[in-house]
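User: Hey, my collaborator sent me this sequence without any context and asked if I could get a structure. I don't really work with proteins. Can you help?
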Amino acid sequence: MTQPTPLLSVRDVRIDYASSRTTVHAVRGVGFDIYPGETVAVVGESGSGKSTTAAALVRLLPRAATVTAGSITFDGTDILAAREASVRRLLGRRIGYIPQDPTVYLNPVMRIGDQVAEVLVIHKLADRKTALISAIEALANAGIDHPEVRARQYPHELSGGQKQRVLIAIALAARPALVVADEPTSALDVTVQRHILDHIGTLTRELGAAVLLITHDLGVAADRADRILVLSQGEVVEHGTPDEILGNPQHPYTRSLIAAAPSLHTAGGTFLTRARQDVSADALSPTPLLEARDLAKTFGRTDDAPRAVDGVSLSIARGRTLSLVGESGSGKTTTARIILRLVDPTSGTVVFDGEDITQLRGERLRQLRRRIQVVYQNPFASLDPRLSVGDIIAEPLRSLKLAGRGERRARAAELVDLVALPASALARKPRELSGGQRQRVAIARALSVSPELVVLDEPVSALDVRVQSQILSLLAGLQAELGVAYLFISHDLAVVRQVSDEVGVLYHGRLVESGSTDAIFDTPQHEYTRELLAAIPRGPREPAITRGEQHS
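Assistant: No problem. I've predicted the 3D structure and written it out in structure-token form, which is a compact way to encode the shape of the chain:
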């Protein structure tokens, strides 16, 4: 029997990052093959070399990175040695790339439809008129609602999850032979995640295309991949089928990843229950800290403009966590921004510690920032690229005049250690950190002023499971110790169950169901809630050859 030829062959690739201070060996001899129709998942913690490997495959390494050894061959073309013009003809047409950060990769001054159509026009797959029609179809396939409307919008008019789906539409528009997907669903709720991964799977089956899926979500890797590669410190420490990796892991690092993954089976207790073992019942008094009453928000001035938030009422008790779940565009982030007083509601009120804060302005609003802090979904966009990590963490203390220079430095050093960053990170800039490291900096900054309420907008969506576990454990411990309350926004229902006291389900701007965490997960009442729970990745599936036989 003839041995099939790999579509992509990676051999002993080594990549270094050089700076004026040191050289970091980010990738150390990585090698693997991907065959047509196969999905290979690469998992590992932040900084393990996953995204660097993906960037090398599409010749998008930053200037500080150098490939010092190895080869990458795609369908007979040596990607590393080929001329830039030759590689450009492959990218977008034969190789689709889904990057991790839509804020960086979407052009802010181009309409969404034009950005998707551009791929087809550049590769002469369509003229401009037909390309726009195909772009709308690609947006629909990527799970974008009202694709004809979205095609005329700009990136700033879309939610984080919607922008991620635009990147997916761009990557799949030309129906490439290989899709390099770098955390393609980390910003998406589980229902859209399933839709996107199903669409990528359909492309694989129909065209014999291959997928390199880079993810920190072991559930997604096990559910979708034919083979899994585990990276640690730039090396492949283990590889095999999902059943082999999850059912019988051989390497201690793999076992630690599996142990840290949040699970819907909460045997052994959740992060909250473990953190609260020594906390008295008095410390968990359900006295409301924040109440939102009948919030509504309409964007647009026409009478028929859709409501992003439509009659949402909720309350958060001191020292407790309320999680909001729902698909991208359901109103989660808009609700949070109203509570944070970053946007005004069209109607409704927000009461914090007994005071109506809906109309606060000037100095009184500024002082409220001391009591309510936020961790944004996208750390790269929320961190000042000109400042060092130490200055970023200390900035709220300086802005609110809460500490002197020496105290600010000491507090920044303390928080860097709490969020599992090395002390050397204090002197680095955000661009020198991985996505997960930047998110930890954002969390440290929010905690610097010891707030009473922290709004966490997808705070761990960019983190690998080990760091995610550390951060969630840290947040739960701080809550138990300090009595801080959290409004936790997430699409990851396994995480939500681990950290929440109450859960609210948003759908098309409405709060369709709310209650205790156990009630929502064990006895969901609304059809949409049941759909969310049904979409959670469940574990390993059949290998590609078996799927092919089933469809023959």
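In plain terms: The first strand starts at residue 8 and ends at 18. You can pass these tokens on to your collaborator as they are.
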